[in-house]
Inverse folding.
């Protein structure tokens, strides 16, 4: 008889995934200097899709059909837009700001879910939204209280919208379908989108000009930030209630700031700290309390 692992083990898997993703903000910040955003996303996700296809070949052959392909393709486009726009944004902001502004998707989800599934948000969702907006305001204000929402910050927030849309659509498309099959199709679609946009709008990377540091960064994004962290998340979310899992996943933004300060040299001002605290409080309120009075 198979022994069931304790819940703490699965919670630690999610925390491990958030540490990996938190570090990836610094990695992407450096990698995008060597390869344009669309090419970077296309290369990253195409390589990830190939690895997962080999690893889960039997699962794919058993489940892939038109329904899985359509569902995965839609999710892949949403996921790609989120990652691509987020990566564009990080070229004009710091990894820490990029991490926390991306995390606002947790607050957007209940309102987008209201539009899609007609489930009205609670008062807690409204409080979280107000705190989130206030936090973004603090992040965008300079020490002299002059508004300084950078172009990269605005792009990061737009990317968060697509991440939120992706989260809303996943349970809808995953119903009565194999999650791993949809996930692989999604990642492959994201990779193809990146390569297509790269060919159409960005200079073709000169492979011979890419240094060893870039290949190490790309390897980290493919093996750790995509393959490994995704498996950690999928395995853990099957054993942990969604609200708890989402709250733990929001730690990604905290680790993003920690690594940005330690490795990128980002300066923490009182305004930024206040903004980050408000955004994190909004995320916690949004995820701890019920998203619907019917839940």
């Amino acid at each position: 008889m198979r022994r069931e692992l304790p819940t703490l083990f699965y919670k630690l898997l999610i925390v491990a995934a958030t540490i990996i993703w938190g570090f990836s903000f610094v990695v992407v910040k450096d990698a995008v200097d060597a390869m344009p955003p669309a090419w970077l996303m296309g290369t990253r996700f195409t390589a990830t899709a190939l690895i997962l296809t080999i690893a889960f070949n039997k699962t794919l052959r058993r489940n892939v059909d038109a329904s899985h392909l359509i569902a995965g393709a839609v999710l892949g486009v949403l996921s790609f837009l989120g990652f691509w726009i987020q990566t564009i944004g990080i070229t004009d902001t710091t990894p820490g700001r990029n991490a926390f502004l991306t995390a606002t998707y947790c607050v957007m989800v209940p309102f987008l879910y209201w539009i899609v599934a007609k489930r009205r948000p609670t008062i807690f969702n409204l409080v979280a939204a107000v705190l989130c907006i206030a936090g973004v305001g603090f992040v965008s204000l300079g020490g002299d209280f002059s508004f300084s929402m950078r172009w990269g910050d605005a792009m990061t927030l737009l990317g968060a919208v697509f991440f939120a849309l992706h989260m809303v659509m996943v349970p809808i498309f995953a119903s009565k379908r194999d999650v791993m099959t949809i996930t692989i199709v999604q990642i492959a679609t994201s990779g193809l989108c990146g390569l297509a946009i790269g060919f159409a709008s960005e200079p073709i990377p000169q492979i011979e000009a890419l240094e060893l540091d870039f290949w190490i960064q790309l390897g980290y994004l493919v093996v750790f930030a995509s393959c490994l962290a995704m498996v950690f998340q999928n395995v853990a979310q099957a054993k942990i209630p969604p609200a708890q899992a989402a709250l733990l996943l929001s730690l990604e933004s905290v680790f993003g700031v920690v690594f940005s300060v330690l490795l990128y040299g980002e300066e923490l001002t009182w305004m930024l700290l206040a903004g980050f605290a408000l955004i994190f409080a909004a995320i916690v309120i949004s995820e701890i309390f019920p998203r619907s009075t019917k839940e």
